[in-house]
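FIELD: query
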Amino acid sequence: MLFFSFYKSLVGKEITVELKNDLSITGLLQSVDQFLNIKLKDIKVNEEDKYPYMISVKNCFIRGSVVRYVHLPAEDVDVETLQDHSRLEAREQKKQNKQHQEQTNQKSSNTTTTTTV
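FIELD: result
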């Protein structure tokens, strides 16, 4: 959820999305969802000669699973806040894993097996 929240804060900013098929699209971030699907408006393809059919496209929806990189303007990235939230999320995940492990151990100790001879 960290990156989802981070991308939501960038709505309205210009970003470049590089796809796994080497197509790079620059546009204004209109929306992003929990699957990191991205909706861009006023797009420009970085290599118009290579992708001439994309010249007439003005808006696009990009499935999150086809994204290789998202290039962001440096001035829009608050690195300290991002690092703090990353640490907090990692700490919470570690705590949840520990609780899950304790529950699993407790269940296995409550289960008894009997054998008859």
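FIELD: remark
The helical segments are 2-8, 79-110.
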